[in-house]
Write a structure and sequence with these properties.
Largest sheet: 7 strands, parallel
Number of strands: 7
CATH architecture: 3-Layer(aba) Sandwich
CATH class: Alpha Beta
Distance between the termini: 44 Å
Order of helices and strands: EHEHHEHEHHEHEHHEH
CATH topology: Rossmann fold
Radius of gyration: 18 Å
CATH superfamily: NAD(P)-binding Rossmann-like Domain
Strand order of the largest sheet: 3-2-1-4-5-6-7
Number of domains: 1
Shape: globular
Strand content: 5-15%
Number of helices: 10
Structural class: alpha/beta
Oligomer: single chain
């Protein structure tokens, strides 16, 4: 390891089980010398294995509903007390769509479910940043990263309302990134990750086939959860101290490849 985060303090949200990107980020952050608090909604914590991760990384768990400003205030306040100072990095790895869970087509979206998805998956990011700023909880030059997906820019029918929600998430990163950057030099970025075999990802209808398709398009293949964690660590580190308000594609080149020879050949089209 490189001690990229030696002496840094963080908050990592969304670690559910060993398949989740947040789990991998926590492991990597620990290896790179960081201390951090783990957090998730109480219901998610009951479903997951976060206690095992806390033991492995020597971390404390502070439950918090990311849609609740009071609970986020408690999270940032307690985290500074537990860690002994201001927060240097935050990972927002929170996403949920009731419409997807219930297999409701995009054109027939239930708007109460839609609003819930916005609150959990995007508005929570704004609330988190707003609370941190009011408390002056993030140290100057700190870094905040949220996980997103390219459906915010391109249409993927199976991603339904989450596409709109991720677009909002990315917009918040840009808008809040300006204000937080001007005032405290805090960096805010989103990482647009490949289709990844996480608990959330595999719950999307047709995920397996699309995973294979994206893997065939990307010159480097799909980026896995562990390599995404590596990328997040670099964004938390001082090596990227001038990177902010960016949506950064971590997808093996998928986002800039029109079509691959492999896909064309599977369609019976000769490329040579």
């Amino acid at each position: 390891m490189y001690n990229l985060l030696k002496g840094k303090r963080g908050i990592i949200t969304g670690a559910l089980d060993q398949n989740s990107i947040a789990w991998k980020v926590a492991e990597k952050a620990h290896e790179e010398g960081a201390t951090f608090v783990l957090t998730n909604a109480p219901i998610a914590m009951r479903m997951g294995e976060i206690k095992n991760l806390a033991e492995k990384t020597g971390s404390e768990i502070i439950p918090a509903d990311a849609t609740n400003v009071d609970e986020l205030t408690n999270l940032f306040t307690q985290s500074q007390e537990v860690l002994g100072g201001k927060i240097d990095f935050v990972l927002h790895s929170i996403g949920m769509s009731v419409n997807i869970r219930k297999n409701i087509p995009y054109t027939e979206s239930n708007y109460d479910y839609f609003a819930k998805g916005i609150d959990v998956s995007a508005m929570s990011f704004h609330k988190m940043l707003s609370v941190a700023k009011k408390l002056d909880a993030i140290s100057e030059g700190g870094s905040v990263v949220a996980l997103t997906y390219m459906a915010a820019q391109r249409t993927y029918p199976f991603y339904t309302d989450m596409a709109d929600i991720k677009a909002m998430l990315e917009s918040i990163a840009r808008s809040f990134g300006y204000h937080y950057g001007k005032e405290k030099k805090v960096r805010i970025n989103t990482v647009s990750q490949s289709p990844t075999k996480t608990t959330a990802g595999t719950g999307i209808k047709g995920f397996g086939d699309f995973f294979d398709y994206a893997n065939a398009i990307a010159p480097l293949g799909n980026a896995d959860a562990e390599s995404c964690a590596d990328y997040c660590i670099t964004l938390f580190s001082d090596l990227t101290r001038m990177v902010t308000m960016q949506n950064l594609f971590h997808d093996g080149g998928y986002s800039t490849t029109g079509v691959s020879s492999e896909v064309l050949e599977k369609m019976g089209i000769q490329t040579q």
